[in-house]
Write a structure and sequence with these properties.
Mean pLDDT of chain A: 94
Pfam families (chains A, B): AMP-binding, AMP-binding_C
Largest sheet of chain A: 8 strands, mixed
Keywords (chains A, B): Ligase
Oligomer: homodimer
InterPro entries (chains A, B): AMP-bd_C, AMP-bd_C_sf, AMP-binding_CS, AMP-dep_synth/lig_dom, ANL_N_sf, ATP-dep_AMP-bd_enzyme
Organism (chains A, B): Streptomyces pratens
GO molecular function (chains A, B): ligase activity
CATH superfamily of one domain in chain A: ANL, N-terminal domain
Chain lengths: 551, 551
């Protein structure tokens, strides 16, 4: 067979030739959205590559950063930068400024493409971005804040459209090694410095094929996908690459991620598919219930990032939008599982049960569960262990190691190279994953695991409980035991005995898993993205700052 | 990203674990079909690999031949042989015996798996198969003819079920190089010796993903595919591998390829998809029209091998079976194009026009047209040239070359490594291929090409013409000119002037393309597979054996 490397330039060429009339539509918020065909995207990506190489001197596998919303120019960057052999580095605009500075420095970004609307975010950082030499601005937004900061930081500012104007609309894309770096993305872990995940041409190409498989998202050129998941977040789940393989149209919200514009763009542009995290969708649901609109085009919604609450899934089902769970992470490109019910469950009561799981592993993702003692656990739907995965689009190390000494922390990679996901769950005999906890939050009690999430959910189902967080605390006899920290609703008089009896009732929680240590707190500490910050609670407990009742 | 090779063993493991309850159903012709789950196939494939290695001494990348119909045991061989590192060599049971002998010798097959029903074909060949040491027989069929021949040829005969019985149901599949040979298939060209096409693990893996993409066949585990296209013909178009990736069920007709059993298995097993060549489907249509049955389950039919006549497509549409054209060849794994109409044509008059083309190139297949003078031709739907293709599942050489000196005949591969398909046609601006002729049959007249097929179709649309073949003959002025050879219907009195005027009428054929040389023949010579044998006509013309009228 011919030895043809799997390259992003081939996806670009395919999309812009065979699906030249497919479109990227970008929401502008002021009437007419902006439309650009795949053929135009292809021509402009070539122009951008010429400009980056000839005008800005981008060479070799240099990183080129983007600080952009989802829009047509960001798609052009997605294809131009890797196709020319450089590495697309998407910056997460939601990160705290100091993390952004750290990441740009770590990746040694010399060029950043930025949307005009994000200048207020970028300008104050410029003096701190030591490696940066060029800023390329596209789209609307006041440029004035940039001029002074750039002058001070000795950074040159370019207008995107001026930079690419007049460049040739074709580029002789190089024949790269398919294992060469194509794109990178930093994980925003809660502990330690961010870690860079580097995607190769091969991994992106294979992942895109997977996204297009009928058991996965399985869209065609009759579809339009509303890509709400940001392009700075794991390559927008691979959608821009996947759509260029099949001619699926893209509807890009740019900065308009609020419920009202989302509802408007669904009604007027009539996408058939959307991809988003549950939080965004929760807001959209409230808007649609408050002000009904014609959203009948949208029949398939892929939800990932965190589990979709059953109530949200049912509410969207009622609107004719079928939610499909997917699970993944930055290190898995991200598609790791997708919850299409198996044939035998379709149309039965079991169907919803399957849809609430994280889903089934596709060909290309191998999975195993590792128990508290490092043992392999069976796929029986009962045994809970840490999920480990392997495959051609799963990270094998983090950025900035060397071939001789790759960056493979032992808490992230097994000795035989599998990725430790940090997620704890079960796998059914037919390969459906159900996640129950994060590995760092699970309570390791006498060689068994207790899920903190299960205890929290059970506690929060009690009418007197506003919020509850369960953390592991050291125990002489069992190693670890659960500590229940509870926020009571105003006026509640429930005591701990009542709550413990409630947990034990109706088979909610097994007796040996019931917490002995209890405390009432005013609110659960949260991280910047709103997740429970359990390390604060663990520290407070260790410092004796919590008033513990022992039952 | 992890460096995980794309191996057939991974497809097998995925299918037998994640889709363990999906089934291969084999038609038996005597009531109850035989059913085997993917989990069982996985276990038995491991047993077969143990038997081949431990009992028959299959080692390294040795070829193991199959002479089998489509059935569960053949699927087991499909996975066991490549997964263990050997090479599956499917023998085309329709080839003339002397070609089979040549091919087995060329591939140095030491082991052949054969269906009991094919013993009458194999037994007489045994004395001539010098490399052969073991015959493994599965399924029904009288074994008696084999014993004598095998004894005479010093070949050992084994029963498939006895051989695998008691072997371990797991096998520690080796981590092979994904570019290693996995399977091979000989082309039955009309000229010269057959040529071996070798598929790699990588090419089969990628091709399977492609088959499962939504723009391609795009089946899911809710589907059952009736695999009529033989497993000895380009890996049954990749279906056995593709189905194990997604859990699509397979319905295998074994030796029951006649219209009546096909109609019966469609009615009783209710497949949703079928893959076949037009000839088989033509017979099925006649049967269904003669004796209507409930074939409502079957909504999608992939037809390839040769173009599906519009009338056949319409007849199947009327039965609710939607025919989808695909084009490919042994050298292209085979999926080269598939005729899913573009979104803008769906539901319009254009839709049928698109469906009659050979289809659109998927991501992974690059195409170009080369004109009579070696120039590249535009994709304008008008310029006809020889189709050349490139991609990771396209052959780059034939079997038995070496790395230093690959077997790449100049009429089959361009200097820069693209496959010359030998097919002549046009490509539209949106990438739809329409084939008009074979390169060897096209008439090269004054630097332009005249399609022999177009002239033949136009001639055969005349009511007095039963058959017509057009071949190129040398011409002093133009290089080549068309010679029209015509079979008249009984009692016809049409003369050549009438026929030429008919061709020229209603814009059927351009004036400069009209033949000057005409002859009446009794019948068009045919090859063993029923195609026009034009080299016979060219030879007869060269020898002066035809009575030519010059207009």
């Amino acid at each position: 067979m011919q030895d043809v490397p799997l390259l992003i330039s081939r996806i670009l060429t395919h999309g812009s030739m065979i699906h030249g009339t497919s479109q990227v539509t970008t929401w502008t918020g002021d009437g007419e959205p902006h439309r650009r065909s795949y053929a135009e995207i292809g021509a402009r990506a070539a122009q951008l590559a010429h400009a980056l190489r000839e005008d800005l001197g981008v060479a070799g596998d240099e990183r080129v950063a983007t600080l952009m919303w989802n829009n047509a120019e960001h798609v052009e960057a997605y294809f131009a930068i890797p196709s020319m052999g450089a590495v697309l580095h998407t910056l997460n605009l939601r990160l705290p400024p100091e993390q952004l500075v750290w990441i740009v420095d770590h990746a040694a970004d010399r060029v950043v493409l930025v949307n005009g609307s994000l200048i207020p975010l970028l300008a104050p950082l410029l003096p701190h971005l030591k490696s940066l030499e060029h800023v390329v601005v596209s789209g609307v937004g006041d440029r004035s804040a940039l001029a002074d900061a750039a002058a001070q930081a000795q950074v040159r500012v370019h207008e995107y459209e001026d930079l690419i104007a007049g460049k040739p609309t074709a580029y002789d894309w190089p024949e790269l090694d398919e294992r060469a770096a194509a794109a990178m993305c930093y994980t925003s872990g809660t502990t330690g410095d961010p870690k860079g995940v580097v995607y190769s041409h091969r991994s992106i190409y294979l992942h895109s094929m997977q996204v297009n498989m009928s058991q996965s998202m399985g869209l065609t050129d009759e579809d339009t996908s509303l890509v709400v998941v940001p392009q700075f977040h794991v390559n927008a789940w691979g959608l821009p690459h996947a759509t260029f393989m099949t001619g699926v149209n893209m509807l890009m919200p740019d900065r308009f991620l609020q419920p009202v514009p989302l509802a408007e763009m669904i009604e007027s542009e009539r996408p058939t598919h959307a991809a988003a995290v549950p939080t965004i969708w929760q807001g959209l649901l409230a808007e649609l219930l408050a002000k009904p609109r014609d959203v009948s085009s949208l029949t398939q919604v892929t939800i990932g990032g965190s589990a979709c609450p059953p109530s949200l899934m049912e509410a969207f089902d009622a609107l004719g939008m079928r939610v499909c769970h997917a699970w993944g992470m930055t290190e898995t490109s991200p598609l790791g599982t997708i919850a299409r019910p198996p044939a035998h469950a379709v149309g039965t009561d079991e169907e919803f049960v399957y849809r609430l799981t994280q889903g089934r592993f596709p060909a290309g993702v191998e999975a195993r569960l590792t128990g508290p003692g490092g043992e392999r656990l069976p796929w029986d739907g009962e045994s809970a262990g840490e999920l480990e995965v392997r495959g051609p689009w799963i990270a094998g190390a983090y950025y900035n190691g060397t071939d001789a000494e790759p960056l493979r922390p032992a808490d992230k990679f097994s000795e035989d190279g599998w990725l430790k996901t940090g997620d704890v769950g079960t796998i059914s005999s037919d390969g459906f994953l159900t996640l129950t906890d994060r590995a760092k939050d699970v309570i390791k009690s006498g060689g068994e695991w207790i899920s903190s999430v299960e205890l929290e959910n059970a506690l929060m189902s009690h009418p007197d409980v506003a919020e509850a967080a369960v953390v592991a605390v050291p125990d002489d006899k069992w190693g670890e035991r659960p500590l229940a920290t509870v926020v009571l609703k105003e006026g509640s008089t429930a005591d701990f005995d009542t709550l413990r009896d409630f947990l034990a009732g109706e088979g909610r929680i097994a007796k040996w898993q019931l917490p002995e240590r209890w405390t009432v707190i005013e609110s659960v500490p949260k991280t910047s993205v709103g997740k429970f910050d359990k390390k604060v609670l663990r520290r407070q407990y260790a410092e004796g700052a919590l008033d513990i009742t022992q039952l």
